[in-house]
Amino acid sequence: MADWDWQVFCKDTIEGEVIPRCFGGGGDITYLDWMLSAWGWTLSVSLLSLAVAIVFGSLMGILRTTPNRGLVFLGNAWTELFRNIPLLVQIVLWYHVVPAFIPALRGVPSFLLVVAALGLFTSARISEQVRAGIQSLPRGQRMAGLAMGFTLPQTYRFILLPMAFRIIIPPLTSESMNIVKNSSVAFAVSIAELTLFAMQAQEETARGIEIYLAVTGLYFISAFAINRIMHFIEGRVSVPGLIAAGGK
Amino acid sequence: MLDLNLDFAFLTPDVISGYIVKGFVFSLQLTLVAMLGGIVLGTLLALMRLSSKPWLVMPAAAYVNTMRSIPLVMVILWFFLLIPLLSGRPLGAEMSAMITFTLFEAAYYSEIMRAGIQSIPKGQVAAGYALGMTYGQTMREVVLPQAFRNMLPVLLTQTIILFQDTSLVYAIGAYDLLKGFEIAGKNFNRPVETYLVAAAIYFVICFSLSMLVKKLQVRIAIIR
User: Fold this and answer.
1) Where do the domains of chain A lie?
2) Which residue from A89, A101, A177 is facing B178, i.e. has the nearest CB?
3) Which chain A residue shows the shortest CA-CA distance from B211?
4) Phi then psi for A30, rounded to 5 degrees?
5) Please, are residues A113 and A190 in contact by the beta-carbon 8 Å criterion?
6) Which of B74, B195, B196 has the CB atom closest to A219's CB atom?
7) Which of A94, A222, B51, B205 is deepest in the core (most CB within 10 A)?
8) What CATH architecture is A48-239?
């Protein structure tokens, strides 16, 4: 096992010949080409799911802090539902069960179904964070807003949410990195992302260690890039005077 | 919109004991083994990270950070590939999963235990030493019991997540709860029903456990 063979990435996926330039051309695909395209799928699934998760998570988190009992119940039920079923089971449900119930979804590519599954799964976690962020604000801020004659939506829009979202950036950062890791579960419904690439390329080439190392490295890079981007945003929007502002 | 007739009649006691029970038992076993092993190993890792010796801190920190930044599915695949290479003989998917989950969860439990140990006032450690206790005695008799108590709800919440994550042994084909339902669904040509029941079972277990943890959290809080 001690011998490395990194040339495996330059091999053609069909003939198994090493292609000198490592990138196939004219219809040939090397393992390197395949891996980069798989990385693209991983990033697309992750970023789209993150968008879905932030939209639904924020909405449900906000509902859970409103004075209306019905809305609170809706937000709580949503969060508990999507938090207490394993992600793999949720992905399988979206893939096999939801289209059986809703015929309109039968033609939808499985990529979008996985985005829905991963997005809604993560929305439950983000809803927890948004709720905690809003509840961490002093009660007086909401009262002051209402006393100034703001409507409830205006109080949220102009007073509570601008503070709450800044407070929850650190947990949102780790959730964004989790989404990259969790996108690996999409292998189960044959999305051509990194983990599925790793499994199939390992089987075809018997060069598991090289393949797994490269894939693990790409996961590292992706999560780290997201971490840096979130850190940049955190610095740009920080509120002066809070501990979270990092001494600014 | 609903053009589907669900039929759960095929899930007779025979089918359940033939397909489901075996997988369910394995999922529970895996969860318990990984929880106990993970907490023991995790506590050791936490103690290493909190020691004053760099040669103990660095490997523990590197281990925990590496495990926490790799997707669990990749960790499962890595171990399934590496264990036979290192030990020289093939290992079943079930056994491989037990080892993987124990080592993987140790990283997460260690972060919880580290927070738990750090939540104990420093004066207690100093008091332990002042009474003539050794490091080991201070940890065993004074710090760790309180750290466990403070962190019990978080440790249990992590265990619920662990139970959910055991479904990922799908990647190496181990026979767990989900696999049992999947095979039953294929054999009786009722995949929609079996996946729904599987989701319902996971939900009921995880939801009731998390309610219990919430109750426990209120009861266990140390009144200061």
Assistant:
1) 48-239
2) A89
3) A80
4) -95, 170
5) no
6) B74
7) A94
8) Orthogonal Bundle (1.10)
Q: Is there a contact between B190 and B7 (Cβ–Cβ < 8 Å)?
A: yes
Chain A residues touching chain B at CB-CB below 8 Å:
1, 80-81, 83-90, 92-93, 96-97, 100-103, 177, 180-185, 187-188, 195, 198-199, 202, 208-209, 212, 215-216, 219-220, 223
- Are B74 and A1 inside 8 Å of each other by CB? no
ipTM of model: 0.90
Check: CB of residue B49 under 8 Å from CB of residue B59.
no
Instruction: A102-111: list long-range contacts, CB under 8 Å, 24+ apart.
Output: A102/B1, A103/B1, A103/B3, A110/A189, A110/A190, A110/A191, A111/A41, A111/A44, A111/A45, A111/A191
C-alpha of B86 from chain center: 25
Contact (CB, 8 A) for B160 and B27: no
- Decide: helix, strand or coil at residue A151: coil
Could you give the CA distance from residue A218 to residue A116 in angstroms, rounded to a whole number? 24
pTM for the structure as a whole: 0.90
Contacts of B85 in chain A (CB under 8 A): 1
Q: What domains can be seen in chain B, in order of their start residue?
A: 13-220 (1.10.3720.10)
Task: Walk along chain A (248 residues) and give the pLDDT tens digit of each residue.
Answer: 557 778 777 777 777 777 777 777 777 788 888 888 999 999 999 999 999 999 999 999 999 999 999 999 999 999 999 999 999 999 999 998 888 888 888 888 889 999 999 999 999 999 999 999 999 999 999 999 999 999 999 999 999 999 999 989 989 998 999 999 999 999 988 888 999 999 988 888 888 888 899 999 999 999 889 989 988 998 888 877 765 554 43
